[in-house]
Amino acid sequence: MKKLKRSGRLVDMTNFLLKHPNQLIPLHRFSERYGAARSSISEDLGIVKEIFESEQMGYLTTVAGVSGGVRYEPAVSAREAKTLVESLCRRLEEPDRLLPGGYLYMMDVLGEPGWMNEIGRLFAGIYRGQNIDVVMTMATKGIPLAYAVAAYLDVPICIARRDHRVTEGSVVSINYVSGSNKRVQTMSLARRSIPEGSDVLIVDDFMKGGGTARGMSELLTEVNAHLVGIAVLVEARHSERLIDEYISLVRLDEVNEQEKQIKAGPGNYTNHLQY
Amino acid sequence: MKKLKRSGRLVDMTNFLLKHPNQLIPLHRFSERYGAARSSISEDLGIVKEIFESEQMGYLTTVAGVSGGVRYEPAVSAREAKTLVESLCRRLEEPDRLLPGGYLYMMDVLGEPGWMNEIGRLFAGIYRGQNIDVVMTMATKGIPLAYAVAAYLDVPICIARRDHRVTEGSVVSINYVSGSNKRVQTMSLARRSIPEGSDVLIVDDFMKGGGTARGMSELLTEVNAHLVGIAVLVEARHSERLIDEYISLVRLDEVNEQEKQIKAGPGNYTNHLQY
């Protein structure tokens, strides 16, 4: 890269840090990249940090020492999270989402990169510093959300499935009982999709009884991986929950099919915000 | 936002443009945001443009006039695309990807946000200016790729499925013949996931005979939507292809199960690069 002035460096640095979240970038990488002194780079980073912080985009952490550097850790501030979750609740309360059986149509929200990126950054901030290796989800609808979280954490995603497709190689399967309708179902995971010993975050779009999440955590045990946490976008009220610990953004308090009324409020995430 | 100096504006502007790809941002939005004169904003954008272009991140297009503004259109340069596709080919040639039946295990690549973001930007650049409203894919493995393309195009994704799950509302289904094994299968799409008249880009991870892609395009006809193009990450060689027009990044030239040999080369995307 040709020698850049401060203004050019700031544009390039911002782009570089946003593209490499949660990676420790050694300072010499920047000084070599721009042909600039380390002291200039430190000043540049001070400016970047000020803006990232005033815009509440997360943390710009500097690690001192020989193996040190700078790391951008995406997060969403409590205030911004509140606004985001409130607008999500209002969207989910739209009466035409109601489907037979008290389900909600959510694919429009789940398929919108703008929303998923914000929510992904929020979850990435909540699980910041927990050394997650893999984000796991269940096919199909939760995949965009899981991907968005994984992108901010800078880790791969892996997908458990209710069928067993031929193109995955050796597969581990378990039977599990759905928490809401008590039916026995099967879920499968390609063995090579999670290396042994991985620390795994489960991400899903919807939780009722928690049977799917518990099934996924049992799959993790089968492949000798370790569950770090369970993050769900929307939890429905349910009398007996099969899992204890999870973080939800939205809780459905009421889904009334007769009167076409949905009431949604913030989930338990407010207890887990760091930022 | 408090009044910012040029250095702060550049960091914030870069972040803002990257977060809103393919959206026309009126210049007054920036001048109000920063309490800066329009002439200063224009100078700022000149600096941003220079870096975006020298780093080959895509186009920063300025639209003049009252309803004008600036738009960041992500793309990948021909040189960078070549490097990206070549390293993708080398990865796909790893012999331990071979699965029974001549299939390749690709989920590790498809689940890595780093790769998907680059490939997403490449496809977004290829279909730049084509007014795409929705990206459509088939569950399951292609979803992260489709999401990445959609995020750069700033449009939602919708997912066709081989099953028919209850939580989607009114569904349109078709039967289709798989191009490779001639089996009749069913695919379904939630009617409300694609508004009538939408211009749709189909994105998939793998294409052999093209039956799935043709099925998806038939689904589009059923919901009165319009096919803009078909983008596939990897195409396998096949004697009779059921579709004519598609853009592929990688072509599998040889998959030899006996000798555990895979040969991959660039697909036809090189004819479609604009950048």
Automatic annotation (TrEMBL), chains A, B:
Coiled coil: none
Keywords linked to the UniProt accession: DNA-binding, Transcription, Transcription regulation
Domain of life: Bacteria
Biological-process GO terms, alphabetical: negative regulation of DNA-templated transcription; negative regulation of purine nucleobase metabolic process
Presence of the UniProt keyword DNA repair in the record: no
Subunit composition and interactions: Homodimer.
Domain Phosphoribosyltransferase: from-to ranges: 116-251
Family annotation (InterPro entries): PRTase-like (IPR029057), PRTase_dom (IPR000836), Pur/Pyrimidine_PRTase (IPR050118), PuR_N (IPR015265), PurR_Bsub (IPR010078), WH-like_DNA-bd_sf (IPR036388), WH_DNA-bd_sf (IPR036390)
Signal peptide extent: none
One Pfam family in the UniProt entry: Pribosyltran
Record-given protein name: Pur operon repressor
